[in-house]
Amino acid sequence: MGVGFFQKPGLYMKQSPQQVLLSTLLQLPITSLEQRIQLELEQNPLLEADMELEEEMEQEMEEELKLEQVDEKDKDAEDDDDEPEVAEEEEEIDWDLILNDEDSYEIKAPREENPDEYSPPNVYQMSLPEYLLEQLNMTDLSPEELTIGEYIVWNINNAGYLMVSLESIAENLDTSIEKVEKVLKVIHTFDPPGIGARDLRECLLIQLEENAKENEKAIVVIRDYFDDFKNKRFEKIAKKMGITIDEFKQILEKITQLNPKPGSGYVTLADDSITPDVLVTKEGDEFKITLNDWNIPHLRINNRYKSLLLDKKNTSKKTKDFIKTRLEMARWLINSIHQRRVTIMKVVEAIVKRQHDFFDKGSTHLKPMILKDIADEIGMDISTVSRVTNGKYVQTDYGVFELKHFFSEKIRREDGEDVSNKEIKERIRAIIDKEDKKAPLNDSKIAEMLKDDGFHIARRTIAKYREQMGIPISRLRKVI
Question: All domains of the chain, ordered by start, with CATH?
Answer without folding.
Answer: 16-55+272-406 (no CATH), 128-255 (1.10.10.1330), 410-477 (1.10.10.60)
